[in-house]
Amino acid sequence: MYNYIASFLVGGTICVIAQILMDKTSLTPARILVSFVTIGVILGGVGIYGKIVEVGKFGATLPLPGFGFTLAKGVMEEVDKVGLIGAFTGGIKGSAGGITAAIVFGYIMALMFNSKTKY
User: Fold this and answer.
1) Residue 3, Cβ neighbours under 10 Å: how many?
2) How many Å apart are CA 44 and CA 49, to the nearest integer?
3) No. of H helices and E strands in the chain?
4) Mean pLDDT estimate for the chain
5) Average of pLDDT values for 70-94?
6) Taking the model in full, what pTM does it have?
7) What are phi and psi of 113, to 5 degrees?
8) What is the pLDDT of residue 5?
9) What pLDDT, on the 0 to 100 scale, is given for residue 31?
10) In a domain, 119, yes or no
11) Residue 95 burial by CB count (10 A; 0-12/13-18/19+): exposed, middle or buried?
12) Whole-angstrom distance, CA of residue 95 vs CA of residue 73
């Protein structure tokens, strides 16, 4: 039960921060998206976001900072394995599964629901 509550609180807090930024600042959603991914990379790189994931479980890995954390974690693991070239390949390897799933399931949903382009 604790995992569900912690996931909800951490994930909800991240989403509330994003909503406040959209409502109270002139930042566009695209800038907030990039900022959250960048913050996830930085916090993951210095070891802080790993602690947030330990507490918030899925609630910390699903939002955008979680994607940045996955990129940073993949890069660090790949650099440890193959050296400097891992800085270029680690993020791709670390996040490939999630990106592939998003593309495949998005395509399936587009086929199922006969999506159309808005003009």
Assistant:
1) 12
2) 5
3) 6, 0
4) 87
5) 86
6) 0.72
7) -105, 10
8) 93
9) 92
10) no
11) middle
12) 10
Of 7, 13, 60, 71, give the one whose Cα is nearest residue 37.
Answer: 71
- For residue 77, what are the domain limits? 2-112
Please count the structural domains in the chain. Answer: 1
Residue with tokens 């593309």: 103
| pLDDT tens profile 27-36 | 988 899 899 9
For residue 25, the 8-state DSSP code is: S
DSSP line for 58-84 = HHHHSSHHHHHHHHHHHHHHHHHHH-T
User: Could you read off the pLDDT of 48-60 as tens digits, one per residue?
Assistant: 988 998 998 888 8
Residue carrying structure tokens 């990039």? 34
Q: Which amino acid is at 7?
A: S
Assess whether pLDDT exceeds 90 at residue 96: no
